[in-house]
Amino acid sequence: MTLTEDDAAKLVHSILGLLREQGAREVVDGIDESRRLGIEEALPEQRGSELKQVGRTRRRPPTNHEMLQIILECLHQRLVVLPTIGISIRKHLGNNEVTWRVDTQFVSLDRVPEVRLSDLLPDQVENVKMALTKITAVCEPSVDEQRK
Amino acid sequence: MATDQEMTELLDSVNNLLNLPAAQQLLQLNSNTCERAYEAYVLSLCVEAVRRAGGSAQLVGIKSGPNPIPVVFRGAPGSMASTNQDFAYVSCALKNRAFELHVDVEYEGTSGAPHEIDVSMCDKAHADAVRKTDGTPKTEGNKLLMAFECKFYESTPGVSLGRTFVGLISDCGGLRFEAFVANLPSQKLGLYFSKKSRPSPFLGLIPTDAESEDRFIRNVEQELRKWA
Q: Going by DSSP bridges, is the β-strand pair B71-74/A98-101 parallel, antiparallel, or unpaired?
């Protein structure tokens, strides 16, 4: 399947809407930050003495395709990489019961609640990985799109 | 161009994915949790490096002693000496060297300014003194041996954190090894750290990339072997 810029825009809109509905505010914030940072690219080869005087990169807003790839990478980190980090901690430390707690003399529990390693490893996390892999494969930019 | 039916199916797949209970649980974790988990992951790779170098590493709870259950890591940067929780560190030995690995501990730099170091390797005798006196560990004089800045990026990496870490390291005196570790690759950060005497970059270090893990562990192991 080849997605057009309009198709990619629809998907971006839909995913961001779903993330907002689910209260995944910090995930959306990360995506917004990536949009703000834009895409850096090298200036095209040109001749002229002016080019020697300026930086060789410029920043431009991401296309809808690029935004879609940014979102999918963000979801990959959250839904696939994060659980594997949990597995790796358990493997190397040899302990299932890992907890993150704050020093309550300095930080309120309301602000940073206690988290357990098991929170990173929800049941059926493999299904999430499979579903995301399928979606990512469909949304991969075509060779033509990558060359643009 | 995708057909209407293909687009409908794709949108349904996205909807189904984001409505899976496991996905919802992971998406609702706050960023602080992801950061803390990534730091513990880097600590666990340092433990692996110590073992590969031929050393020993044992988890210790500041109140409960060896092999604490549960293992409690700091949810926010804090004092090495704090006994408010049974905070854990890793006690290590390699040849005749004794040292500790800590997560999210505050150190006092050469200027006297405090610095939060995500994952640190500290001389054991100094850490013992800190716990005994309820003081703050210092960075200089072979007290802080290694420092790792760890970042779980959820947006395109910029160079600002790298810049901050370079500033931090410049206030630490001479360290055996300092590294900037992040889950995402970044050309910009790679360029920034390519200058001589800057911290070593490990960008794109994640468990699903075995080569990236191996490279990190080998580098830490090598520095440990050179030192011990």
A: parallel
Q: Report pLDDT for A62.
A: 96
Spell out which residues of chain B touch residue A31, defining contact as CB-CB under 8 Å: 155
Domains and CATH numbers, chain B: 30-227 (3.40.91.10)
pLDDT in tens, A60-110: 999 999 999 999 999 999 999 999 999 999 999 987 799 999 887 777 777
Length of chain A: 148
pTM exceeds 0.90, yes or no: yes
The CA distance from B142 to the nearest CA of chain A, in Å, is 26
Q: Which among A26, A89, A101 has the least Cβ separation from residue B31?
A: A26
Minimal CA separation from B81 to chain A, in Å: 11
Of the candidates B91, B106, B100, B99, the one whose C-alpha atom is nearest the C-alpha of residue B136 is B106
The span from the CA of B211 to the CA of B138, in Å, is: 34
pLDDT tops 70 at residue B135:
yes
Measured distance CA(B44)–CA(A93) in Å, rounded = 6
Burial string for B45-63 (b: 16+ CB within 10 Å, else e) reads bbbbbbbebebebebbbbe
ipTM field: 0.94
Q: How far apart are CA B138 and CA B120, in angstroms?
A: 12
Distance between B69 CA and the closest CA of chain A, angstroms: 7
Q: Which of A90, A108, A118, A81 minimizes the C-alpha distance to B76?
A: A108
Q: Which of B69, B98, B73, B78 is nearest to B88 (CA)?
A: B73
Please judge whether B30 and A86 are an interchain contact, meaning their C-beta atoms are less than 8 angstroms apart: no
